[in-house]
Amino acid sequence: MRRAGLTSLIAFVGITVALLVGVLAAGWAPLLGLDLQGGISVVLKPAPGTDPEGLDARLDQAMGIIRNRVDAIGVAEPDITRQGQTIVVQLPGVKDQERALELVGTTAELRFRPVLAAVPAASLETTTTVAGDGTATTVAGESTATTAVGDTTTAPSTTPATTAPSTTAPSTTAPSTTEAGMDSVGGPLAPGEYAGGASESAQAATTTAAPTTTAADGATVTTAATTDTTAPVDPTAITARADDQADKEVVLPSFETVDGKRTETFRYLLGPTLVSGNALSDASAQLTQNGQWLVAITFKDGDENIGAWRSAASACVAKTTTCPTGQLAVALDGEVLSAPTVQSDFAGVNSATITGTFTEREAKDLATALQYGSLPIELERQQSQEVSATVGNDALRAGVIAGIIGLVIVALYLLLYYKILGAVAIAALVMSFGLLWAVISWLGETQGLALTLAGVVGIIVSIGVSVDSNVVYFENIKDDMRSGRTLRSSAERSFRTSLSTILKADSVSLIGAGLLYWLTVGPVRGFAFYLGLSTLLDLVATWFFMRPAVRFLAQTNLASSRPDLFGIPRHDHEPPGGAQPPTPSSSTAVPV
Amino acid sequence: MGTLRRLFRNETNYNFIRAWRWGAVISLVAVAISLLSFGFRGLERGIDFVGGTAWEVPTSQLTVSETRDVLRPLGLEEAKIQTVGGDLVRVQGPNQTPEEVATIRTALADAAGISADTVAVTQVGPSWGSEISSKAIRALIFFFIAIAIYITWALRDWRMAVGALVAVVHDIIISIGVYSVFRIEVTPATLIAFLTILGFSLYDTVVVFDKLRENAARTALSGTMTYTELASLSMNQVLMRSLNTSITAILPVLSILVVGSVILGATTLEEFGIALLVGLIVGAYSSIFVATPLVAWLKEREPKYREVRKRLGRSKGEVIMTSPAEAADAREVEAHRLPTTTRPGAVPRPPKPGAAAPTVIPPRPRKQRRR
Asked: Which residues of B fall within a CB distance of 8 Å from A464?
């Protein structure tokens, strides 16, 4: 019995110390929440009146888009979570609030844009370029592929879009932007190189090349007139988000993910939007009979939907100035998802298929993106909070200092009142705190779960709960000893009674913490989590530390010779003869 | 023997029955004041609940009137300006466009002579507050239901669930009342703190009830005292524990309040601290003065205890307390009666003669070891 208790005690202390040392050795520390290290948090919700159809999937998609955007600006530990229909974005360490709000707040639109030129990302360093879509995706089946890429590229410098009926005012200004764009290459890159590169690429892709050079030359001539009115487009510099507008020419990258690593594959110079994502009514990934994945899309009726698509398609098939390469890119949120070559003018058909060398995953991702594009979610800002790093650090410092002082006072009180038992209680507190530190560090490191100020308060409050368990136990021991038992015999007996009380009371805390966690959002959740966690650890410490420790101490000689050192009134267990009867207290008792 | 010493030895013998009457009066008055104040004055709700924009400028250079001068040309005359802890100025105003927010931010930073980066801005949409409040209220309702079921199950008595819940509702009403009467701003931190208090108050109540149940099972069946007397007695027994736990819970909270907010000036900690302190005090009070007497009152209506009361020939609510001398007599009597305890396998253990026994409760019978 004695040995078993001691083993459990030593094992518990050993495991706690080992965990703590392990965590410290691994260099893990609790991940600090936004309110403790500074940063920005934004809470978003779908705007009222959002179509509830497939909302879950669309919210997930929106979250994915936000995550991509945040990753792109390199935030260290972004925390983007969904709680019901609410999206909570936390960006620790980010200072520029306007930028962050713009990042997460703007609605992503799916757009079909014509490809004006393409450069493989890998070649950007050396500026040797190859045009064309390496992924060889093609749109629709029947008509055979017409490959020539470069043959109409001379057009942009001269003829403003005339062929595509759907393109309205914006698209007519576009070609001139191209010129300006070509010109701006003259700045950072030296004028000839891009042109040269472009012509090379045209050759590589098969046919006649020269025109592009002319385009560049033409551009140099005409710039003076145009630069003032239109923003120059540098085909090698990705367009900033703010400038990524439907009616402008843009440069957007495409990515591929291999083994979880995202690498840029191509950089596209894209014309103004020809068809918007709203034109889509449905998109799905399908498996063909010969085992290939394709994405089938259907358009809504109406001039601005299927009508726009048909005119865009015929422009691409004819390779007019609006769609010189014959490729129509699918762009979502600053990224080209796919740039298939159009092979039909879709006269009389409402649907299209996108084929290529898709994996199942790629096909499904594309289909999801297209579906989202048909009904983008407009997110409304519920709350945005910025905590400056200094305020956060101050709060943390204040919380830690307050916690330590609170602990010291409680420790002194326990020592004064319960003496040796008080020391055991303090040791139990230290143990459960050690465990808590290890668990919080582990959660922060592996699960990205941050410790917030609310969490710190939860933990400080749980000091009270832990001490309560000890007090319940000690008072029970005192009770028992008053009725004549020795410390040795009451230690175990009282533990059983106390444990039942502690379990009941802790259950109430756990039920509360659990419900709060499930049913609330934001800071309340963090608080509930840490309150629940520390309550659980309190139970662990009570069972594995408190019980064997008190039992062990109760068996020492000290326990029988100096019970006062255990905070137990002296006379209570002295042999009956020596006991003084208690002085009758007339002040408070009312005799019958 | 001084009061403290008696407390230390768990040998108090306070007449809680009388105190409970006062408690009932005090609680009723406090609840009435709280409800009236809430009804007429409402609560001072922070921007998290009403929507708006807040700027926090970490500076000791600006006074409230200087800040107002800075804001006046920007159309924010009505803004609420506070200095917090001596080195933070907080401005709260209605919702603004991002450009306006940025302009005000820069203006404040310039006036304080600091960089605009260090001015923290919080913006809250108008529906966010109602969203968190409605979520919290929903959580609260589920919490009450779950706790009622749990206590009924764990303590095997629905009356105790009623007592505990009434005590908690009492705590909520009075805490709201304190916030309403003293015009303390309600923030999400306040909400969290209140929820903590609920758990804490319930924890305390459950410990008291567990003792009550234990004593009732052992003694009351022998018919030597009414349930109310029993409750008062149990209260005396757990008084030290209640005091100790309340003290050990209040000490860290006081530390949060004093160190965190007064000395180091952390606003959120102050919000937590005030709410926790109010709640802890009300919670400790309600376990003793609301939950327990209510259970006693309900229990007295049970036929079993009505019988006891009749047999002991006591009128309803008569104040009965035993003096230690009487307690000794009662103990003698009980030593003979104990075998009638319902607990199967319980072996009565007569107390050692002469041992100090301030209460009439005999020692706990040895429990059979659970297998």
From this structure: 200, 245, 248-249, 252-253
